[in-house]
Specification:
Keywords: Flavoprotein, Oxidoreductase. With about 550 residues, the chain is α+β, with helices and mostly antiparallel strands. Helices cover about 35% and strands about 20% of the residues. It folds into two domains: about 290 residues, FAD/NAD(P)-binding domain (3-Layer(bba) Sandwich), CATH 3.50.50.60; about 200 residues, Succinate dehydrogenase/fumarate reductase flavoprotein, catalytic domain (Flavocytochrome C3, Chain A, domain 1, Alpha-Beta Complex), CATH 3.90.700.10. Strands 1, 2, 6, 7, 8, 9, 20 and 21 form an eight-stranded mixed beta sheet that branches. Strands 10, 12, 13, 14, 15, 16, 17 and 18 form an eight-stranded mixed beta sheet that branches. Strands 3-5-4 form a three-stranded antiparallel beta sheet. Helix 1 packs parallel to helix 19. The longest helix has 19 residues.
Length: about 550
């Protein structure tokens, strides 16, 4: 079978590339090892966050933003340091990073409206950073959530792919696993692999790997949009960087099992260059899903600024390892502090009042009001006094949650969630009382309490994401809730090195003719446009931007 372009991977990056190609008149074969229910990939499961700069939504909330400020933040977060030498790993990453911030500050919002992606009016302030003007973090809120959450971003492109299939411009090859890139005279000319037995497993659930045949597809070019390695713990451990200490003995999984990274090594075997494989983005606020879809299914808590965060031994985490501040710094602290390295967990202690206002759960299925575009439901759940329904379900049914009316009982129940009791109620009480003593004034010397007051100066957080300052041990704010937190695998920040046209490069820096890459497989562009950190809302945007670049580059070819 011959076609113009083969796209491997039916996630967001692949769908955006397919959209650009089919609308230009190209014929596309879209190949994926999973069934049709999984169209949209990881984006479907996401919160739908999009990084935008100087948007109307920001301005309505009193946020002053600019390309210059965003680019300063991006560079401070990325920390690119593999530069200067010939064939440097960050050579293209820097160029992709700047191009992406220009896109986010320019045409991105209008471009998103064309496939009917709409935004909620609220803008979140994720990754507030390391407390330095030139360090990691967002200086201002930039996390825009799409109506429909992740489905509101992925489904418009999935619909266009289905329309292209009906018109004959696109053919879906579901349950086709690519095992080889076909290389002829130094040029990639297609793919080959095996067909897998039909499987009607629900979206995200594991599917069989029974081989029932083989296939070959010839094409003028191939786009790899196969995602990262977050579902493959063996590969995560293989590339876990020494700077983050030892990987946890047990992690939970924030992506479906088919996010296995296998195409990265297949591409390398065909001559592609992989860079920055030691850069990855895993969250430390993971909890086990009480209604799992895939193995070890994890959900991330997106906390507001008030939860008290303790290590496995019951000590409050130091700045910048605070809720919502610096993901990688917190991960590093928990994995490199000598007496913590043997433990794979940490703890939140919150009041019911904090949980109701400040706990959001990442994922389309955990935010049904936004996913279903129910404005009244959003107003009730986000501005009301009770915890959102999905958060309350985790409190009541989640294996990592315990509730008590007093601290001693709470700590006893928290100790019941570990193999042996590690927490001392008196030590925890002393730290909470020290913190509570800082709550009498609208100013304080405690860095976290300062952050709470700072957060409430931004009207978006004051309305929907930050509870009124209060003492943790105030019975009126209770009951108390303890949450056991795990490391949750999620994103790869490195990958196939690409130029600004999404062409995959070889170890000598020249293009591997006929091969393109987009999305997480390309480190979201250039093999690492995020550098060492991410500013949040940039993963979906990176898939869109790099998929668009790949599609447009090939659409312009004769």
């Amino acid at each position: 079978m011959n076609t113009d372009i083969v796209i491997v991977g039916g996630g967001l990056a692949g769908l955006v590339a397919a959209h650009e190609l089919t609308r230009s008149g190209k014929y596309v074969a879209l190949v994926d090892q999973e069934n049709a229910a999984n169209l949209g990939g990881q984006a479907f499961w996401s919160f739908g966050g999009l990084f935008l700069v100087n948007s109307p939504e920001q301005r309505r909330l009193g946020v002053r933003d600019s390309f210059d400020l965003a680019w300063r933040d991006w560079q401070g977060s990325a920390g690119w340091d593999r530069l200067g030498a010939p064939l440097a790993e960050d050579e293209w990453a820097v160029q992709w990073g700047r191009a992406y911030v220009e896109f986010a500050a320019g045409e991105k919002r209008n471009w998103l409206s064309r496939p009917d992606i709409k935004l909620t009016p609220m803008v979140g302030w994720a990754e507030r950073g390391a407390g330095k003007a030139l360090g990691h973090g967002n200086s201002v809120p930039r996390f825009h959530v799409a109506w429909g959450t992740g489905t509101g971003v992925s489904e418009p492109f999935a619909c266009r792919a289905r329309e292209a299939a009906r018109s004959g411009r696109l053919i879906f090859y579901h349950r086709h696993r690519v095992d080889h890139l076909l290389v002829e005279a130094g040029r990639v000319k297609g793919v080959s692999g095996v067909t897998l037995a039909p499987d009607d497993a629900p979206r995200g659930a594991p599917s069989n790997r029974q081989v029932i045949g083989d296939f070959t597809l010839k094409a003028d070019a191939v786009i790899l949009a196969t995602g990262g390695i977050g579902g493959n713990h063996e590969m995560v451990r293989r590339y876990w960087p020494e700077r983050l200490g030892a990987p946890p003995a047990r992690m939970i999984t924030g992506v479906p099992a088919h996010v296995d990274g296998r195409m990265l090594d297949i591409a390398a075997g065909a001559g592609a260059r992989l860079v920055n494989r030691d850069r990855m983005w895993h969250y430390v606020e993971g909890v086990r899903n009480w209604a799992p879809i895939w193995p070890d299914h994890a959900i991330r808590i997106l906390p507001g600024p008030s939860p008290l965060w303790f290590d496995a031994l019951g000590r409050r985490l130091p700045f910048p390892a605070l809720p919502g501040y610096d993901t990688i710094a917190t991960l590093k602290y928990l994995r490199t502090t000598p007496d913590l390295a043997e433990h794979d967990h940490s703890w939140f202690i919150v009041t019911e009042t904090m949980m109701a206002k400040e706990f959001a759960l990442s994922g389309s299925e955990q935010n049904q009001d936004i996913t279903n575009r129910n404005l009244l439901g959003v107003l009730r759940s986000r501005l009301g006094k009770a915890a959102p329904r999905e958060v309350a379900a985790f409190r009541d049914k989640g294996a990592d949650f315990v509730v008590a009316d007093d601290l001693d009982t709470l700590v006893g129940r928290m100790n019941g969630l570990t193999d042996r009791p590690l927490l001392d109620a008196a030590l925890i009480r002393a730290q909470i009382e020290d913190r509570d003593a800082q709550m009498a004034n609208p100013y304080a010397k405690d860095a976290q309490v300062q952050g709470i007051h700072n957060s409430r100066r931004y009207r978006g957080d004051r309305w929907a994401r930050t509870s009124a300052p209060h003492r943790v041990l105030d019975p009126a704010a209770g009951p108390l809730i303890g949450v056991k937190l795990h490391v949750l695998t999620r994103k790869s920040l490195g990958g196939l090195q690409t130029d600004l046209s999404s062409r995959v490069l070889t170890p000598d820096g020249t293009p591997l003719e006929g091969l393109y890459a987009a999305g997480e497989a390309a480190g979201f562009g250039g093999g690492g446009l995020h550098g060492y950190n991410a500013l949040e809302g940039t993963f979906l945007g990176g898939c869109i931007f790099s998929g668009r670049a790949a599609g447009r580059a090939l659409a312009g070819q004769a």
